[in-house]
Amino acid sequence: MANIVAIVGRPNVGKSTLFNRLIERKQAIMDDEAGVTRDRHYGLSEWTGKHFTVVDTGGYVVGSEDIFEGAIRDQVKIALDEASVILFMVDTKTGMTDLDKDFARILRSTNKPVLVVANKTDNSELQMMYHEFYGLGIEDVFPVSANNGSGTGELLDKVVELLPQSDEENPYEGIPRIAVLGRPNAGKSSFVNLLLGEERNIVTDLAGTTRDSINSHYNAFGQEFILTDTAGIRKRTKVKEKIEFYSVMRSIQALQDSDVCILMIDASRGFESQDMNIVSLAARYKKGLIIMVNKWDLVTKDHKTAERFTKNIQEKLGPLSYVPIVYTSVLNKQRVHKAIETAVGVYNNMTHRIPTSQLNDIMLDEIGAFPPPATKGKYIRIKYITQLPTKTPSFAFFCNLPQYIKDPYRRFIENKLRAHFGFEGVPIQVYFRKK
Ligand code: GDP
Ligand code: GDP
Predict the structure, then answer these.
(1) Considering only CA atoms, which of 45, 257, 252 is closest in space to residue 160?
(2) ipTM of predicted assembly, 2 dp
């Protein structure tokens, strides 16, 4: 179950201010590392070690004064459909308004947890005022100031308490979970149907694990894996296509629930900006990734076509070009097994641990041959390296002056790690720490 926390409320209560406060620290660092531009309306947050995605629904649904009603309905619908916890924001300075009551009426009918966030409770004087929001008929009311941060700790304690506990008791621990994402018409359903068609491959059907996707446990092509299929959903439910939000949320949910993502693209259309969004999301969420260029049968080929295609995609990927690319035709059942094999391979790369002595021998040699450039007349000395005990590969390089290491050197290090230790398709993190 994906951990999505949605912020709803009428305009100007402070939704985007709270949103920025919740995501700022972490997001800035991660985006920096992945070279990813920041989306204004959803982001990763963490509190006491628990991770969740925060969504500012107001950013997706803006209402002018006269279309408020529709805007409320859309915001609330998004929150009810997609979120596990809903933060309903009101403004203590203004007090309770009719629009707040309209929101409350709809929110009271859900069985999802709703917390009233009485924002702009900036000082003790205003602390006397927020109690009126108990009149909204929702049990939990938290006075906060999104501006100065007061009260947000108590709010977040409650939020993480309400989040579904996902990873504990995972009976499929150790089996790669693969999500298939991509633009409409790339061939995702055909791919899943091809796998499903070979019925003997299916071990158990885990339908209903999450409402929005179908997870099936396979044993196919000599590989054991769980496939999360989001393709069918769009076809079953009639979501409003105009809200781009839904496709983003579906991708986020599928990504959160998976280890490796197969991004499927249509060879006859090429690699487009929406595809890059998925690549960025996968990097941001530290998921493994492969690109499956489907409908390869439609392309007129010579012996260099695949090479050219690969080069073209890699240019667009920039620093994320560690992603393997597989050319398939689901229609002709060509290299479909190769795609699965590659995705499982990426999963194995993610769990790969390098012995410390080997890591130090090889990397200190590389660093000796090409040390970090001196900055402000100071020499930077990297003394030793360890792989951190994290879920995806991350490495700490201990040195005297970590603050002087620049991005190009960080990329050099990452490239050398990849060249020596084979992290194809896997996001890796490199930290420089003070010895
Ligand atoms: P949204 O429309 O709900 O996303 O609201 P914004 O986050 O854009 O905030 C609307 C206005 O309220 C801005 O001028 C914010 O600076 C202000 N604001 C947000 N949070 C607080 C707060 O905790 N205290 C005070 N006094 N103002 C706030
Ligand atoms: P989805 O929207 O990503 O689930 O895409 P579908 O699986 O519904 O496929 C869209 C269309 O592409 C259908 O008409 C498929 O028959 C067709 N298609 C899928 N895979 C291939 C392929 O490898 N080659 C060709 N030529 N057509 C394909």
Answers:
(1) 45
(2) 0.69
